[in-house]
Amino acid sequence: MATVSVGAYESNINQASLPEILADSLRCTLQHTSNPLPMAKGEITEVEPPSNVFSYSCKLGERATSDVIVRLRTVHGRDDWFYSHSEILCAKSKYFAVRLSDDWPTYHLLDSRNCVEVICIESDIDHHVNLLRMLYSNLEEPVGDMWHSVKNALGMLKVATKLGCDAIASKCALYLEAVPWEESEEEEILKALPAIMSSTHKLVAGLGAKVEPILARLQPVDTASIRNVFLSAVHMATLSESGSNNLEKLPSDLKVAAQEQVEYMLEEDDDAPLLIADDNLKAELKKHFLKLYGEFKDGLSALVTNSIPENLEVAEKAILEKISDLVWAWRMLPQVGLISDFVELWVEASSDVTLALNSDKLRDAFWNTKLHVVEITATVLKAVGYGNVILTANKRTQLVKVWLPFICETKPILDTLFAGEKIAMEMDMDLCQSIENALVSLVLSLPSVDQAEILADWLRWDHARFPDLSEAFEVWCFRTKAAKRRLSIETPKSANAISSGGNLQGGSLKYS
Q1: Could you state, in chain order, the average pLDDT of each consecutive group of 10 residues for the chain (512 residues)?
Q2: DSSP class of residue 360?
Q3: Distance between CA 82 and CA 61 in Å, rounded?
Q4: DSSP for 315-358?
Q5: CA-CA distance, 496 to 163, in Å (whole number)?
Q6: Distance (Å, whole) CA 134 – CA 170
């Protein structure tokens, strides 16, 4: 009897390993006696093949007609015997064909049967059993009826590769390439397949060509394809219901999904962003964002100039969709290098936007829209206040003078409406803190005279608690009091430092 042992993923056994193989063989056979042979420990009785597959006249586990014992063993002591038939094993497995050939010595012990021992790891032993069953099945049957799951097919592929079962390995590869995978299954495939492809398996011909298509869905994509998908996703992410001509109603979840994936494609996490915006991509994105900006501004102007619509909620819904898309677009601007362009646009439009929202028609309405306008303005204030976008002193002053009173007046009303469940969103703590910090930084970047005017107005407001500009006020007081000393301004003792008009009197400016 020739007993052959193979490691869990071993594929190439040469003549040099024959003494060790035979030693293992003799060790396992001396534990058993010849006729009559009782049922051995771990012996598997006759195994019926699946009812939907072809079966040979003989069956796996059919002791009376078998001439080979396949012994599956694990290092943890599991020892299963399968009475098998050399004709079937040799026809469908190169490994068994080699080990049962005349080139290998045969010992007629153990009921005159050959014994082929296969060493398995515990997690793979069921896949070995399934493979033995498949050797007795009709492999022309539909693939899906055989493997049932990605886990089974992958396990079978590893075993089929080890034992040189071309037909089964091909079926496994075909199944894995065609079915969907879960994330955990993808990880298993990525761990197992490259190892199979890079190993020295010679028992399965052309295995690499069969396995490579499985990984095709996980291969990197060229830049042109990524760009095409990205721009299509941006189109969907900014598409309004009125713009979806072929749909009765644009599915909101599809739009949200598109927005999320656009953000993910630009995000730098453990992996690099999928694409970096070049000049051509920036030009394409600028068209999309300018369109959103124009639609919002035109829609707002039309509401103010036209007659009051009968249903303000319906009117706001159309405006709210545009401003909501703008809020999303503003999150993208820094990542695609367009923040400066749109900050300039927003500053130029600030007076028109606030005048429209404070008009008689909209003063007591459109609160959700006003909240989104505040969100965009917060982004602008941060960009300018922290020096990420450089504007002239005049434009910075205009930005503060327009938006500071609007935010001060809007915040308490939004809080009341949210508390009364009249609106679904609020100016939360993070947004308020962001606005406050940006405004303090922005005010302190202005000429001292402009700071004085802004702070004087702020201190007169009853709702000066938000935004809290105390820090800017303190810094302004210190700077103003220390200005002459710090700049070495000489003032005659007989002259007043500051006239009632607020001008320096009788002094000259010197820089030390």
Answers
A1: 39 36 37 36 43 61 88 88 91 88 62 78 90 86 71 90 88 89 89 70 63 84 92 89 52 85 90 89 92 90 77 81 91 91 94 92 90 95 94 96 94 93 90 95 96 94 82 95 80 51 44 36
A2: T
A3: 5
A4: HHHHHHHHHHHHHHHHHHGGGGT-HHHHHHHHHHHHHHHHHHHT
A5: 103
A6: 13
CB-facing half-sphere around the CA of 37: CA atoms within 13 A: 17
* Phi, psi for 126 (deg, rounded to 5): -65, -35
User: What is the pLDDT at residue 446?
Assistant: 96
Query: Over 104-127, what HEC string results?
Result: CCCCCCCCCCEEEEEEECHHHHHH
User: What's the chain's Rg over C-alpha atoms?
Assistant: 39
Contact 17, 6 (CB under 8 A): no
pTM: 0.68
Place of tokens 């303090």: 440
* Element containing residue 368 per DSSP (H, E): helix 367-385
Please report, in angstroms and rounded to a whole number, the separation of the first and last CA atoms in the chain: 106
**Which residue type sits at 80?**
D
Query: What's residue 16's pLDDT?
Result: 36
| Cβ–Cβ < 8 Å for 330, 288 | no
Beta bridge partners of 81: 43, 71
User: Using H for helix, E for strand and C for coil, what is the string for 216-244?
Assistant: HHHCCCCHHHHHHHHHHHHHHHCCCHHHC
Longest Cα pair distance anywhere in the chain, in angstroms? Answer: 132
What distance in Å separates the CA atoms of residue 68 and residue 132, rounded to the nearest whole number? 13
Residue 1: predicted pLDDT: 43
pLDDT (0 to 100) of residue 106: 58
Asked whether the beta carbons of 324 and 364 are under 8 A apart, the reply is no
